[in-house]
């Protein structure tokens, strides 16, 4: 058994290693080392916990069994998961962190002696507050992430579910949670604790159902943040530095990602959270849609245009992930490069269903990361490029965001695709994108629409090159 | 008068938020997905609490209501720890720099 002071120092060390793990992600070269720091930090934290409890009885064996069981499942999932399913995986993992936080809180509530928090019915006030906040946030993270997972997986419709009185109801439930925590602290009643958990599960569910599919990047980042705050809450209860540091890191990380995602859509956080985006606009655009002429072409035309270009910019979006077209795209680009055509990729911050989603898919298809650029880095290059190849993206290329103050996406940063000499737009139909508005780009003089499945079209173009 | 240890923990918490703020802003956008999976893995350090809960039973009864929740939490957190770090490793291994063509 090691002293409390020594173990506290080790927990601090593991907290610092977690900071270094995130620090490593500032560039791909240092990132792998960063991940090792993270693993080391985790090993230290777990080992120190064993040593400080000094309990190597039969219970210890069961702890190891459960770690191994969970670890095997986790390892198996991590090994098998396709990269396109990353958003679902992360949402699923968040739900587990949330649930684990809830379970630890329940355990501490039922047996406070084991955690030095007092005795049942006489739990220290501070610990009880921290514990109930951790449990409530954990429960919200769990049910919210489950809904996000179901929406991303397509088990549940990605369209927003809204009903009358939704926002007042949610506000009422949030107030109820605060009241319940207050009551719990004054009565220490287990019943109130269970009701608190139930209500928190309910609000997590209600908060996420009105949010539509393409707003998932914000939702996932937000739940990421929540899982951090839940961990921090439990960390305060357990007086554990590693948990407090980690909770704060993860909480602020998720918050920053949510902010970046909201900025990428030029929408306020509350606008996203209140949900229902895209549901109302769809009806409007459907009724007064005028028929405008579009030019459509086939793989042959596209290949011809690209063969005669000297530089091509690829704009991937969620549609590429759905069609699993990243490998086909890479093959097309290889062929282009053989013909001495300069190719780069332009990624919008909210392309895909989670932050950095497109980058991972391109990396999977062996696209070197120094050919992939963010919006600010590449936006000026469109004017000098010959061909823009839009594959599976839509709203993020819509020039309306710059020209029409009436448009729901006005002010959103968009890729200046229309400045290219010609634009190839791979899309299955002319249907509007997530925001429910028509894309002006379809009707431009220099746009050629390629109506087909993204993967099939890309393969066909490669054949024709 | 002595300072409540809670204040120290609160200080650590607040300062860590600031550290997190600056560290995460320096993460390159192309690694935002690995950032999410690794933060997910490290937040599972909550397993520390789960282990204490799991070991809370005495030698007569390893399993009581409290320790069972502990064991369940251990399994959940372990899924995240192994899954999170491994999938991050898998993703990061794919990020490659341009190789100079021999041509």
Fold topology:
The complex is a heterodimer of chains A (465) and B (103).
Chain A: H1 4-23, H2 28-53, H3 58-80, H4 86-110, E1 118-119, E2 122-123, H5 125-153, H6 166-187, H7 190-208, H8 216-238, H9 241-264, H10 269-274, H11 279-287, H12 299-307, E3 311-316, H13 318-323, H14 326-338, E4 342-347, H15 357-364, E5 372-374, H16 375-378, E6 387-391, H17 400-403, E7 422-427, E8 447-451, H18 454-464
Parallel strand pairs in A: 3-4, 3-6, 4-5, 6-7, 7-8
Antiparallel strand pairs in A: 1-2
Chain B: H1 5-25, H2 32-43, H3 47-54, H4 65-92
Helix pairs in contact in B: 2-4, 3-4
Could you please describe the fold and organization of this structure?
The complex is a heterodimer of chains A (465) and B (103). With 465 residues, chain A is α/β, with parallel strands linked by helices. In chain A, 60% of the residues lie in helices and 8% in strands. In chain A, the strands form two sheets. Chain A has a six-stranded parallel β-sheet with strand order 5-4-3-6-7-8. In chain A, β1 and β2 form a beta hairpin. In chain A, α4 (86-110) packs antiparallel against α5 (125-153) and α14 packs parallel to α18. Chain A starts with a helix and ends with a helix. Chain B is mainly alpha-helical and 103 residues long. Chain B has helices spanning 5-25, 32-43, 47-54, 65-92. The longest helix of chain B has 28 residues, at 65-92. Chain B starts with a helix and ends in an 11-residue tail after the last helix. In chain B, 59% of the residues are buried. The model of chain B has no long low-confidence stretch (mean pLDDT 88). Classes of the chains: A alpha/beta (465), B mainly alpha (103). Chains A and B meet through α1, α2, α3, α4 and α8 of A and α1, α2, α3 and α4 of B.
In percent, how much strand structure appears in the residues of chain A? 5-15%
Reported for the largest beta sheet of chain B, the result is: none
Unreliable segments of chain A (pLDDT under 50, ≥5 consecutive)? 279-288
SS field, number of helical segments of chain A: 18
Strand content of chain B: under 5%
Q: Helix and strand succession of chain A? A: HHHHEEHHHHHHHHEHHEHEHEHEEH
- Which segments of chain B are poorly predicted (pLDDT under 50) over 5 or more consecutive residues? none
Most extensive protein-chain contact, per-chain counts: A-B, 117 and 84 residues
| Oligomeric status | heterodimer
**How many extended strands of chain A?**
8
Tell me the strand order in the biggest sheet of chain A.
5-4-3-6-7-8
| Rg over alpha carbons of chain A | 25 Å
**Straight-line N-to-C gap of chain B:** 76 Å
Q: Given the C-alpha coordinates, what overall shape of chain B results?
A: flat
First CA to last CA of chain A: what distance? Answer: 69 Å
Shape category of chain A: elongated
- Number-wise, the strands of chain B total 0
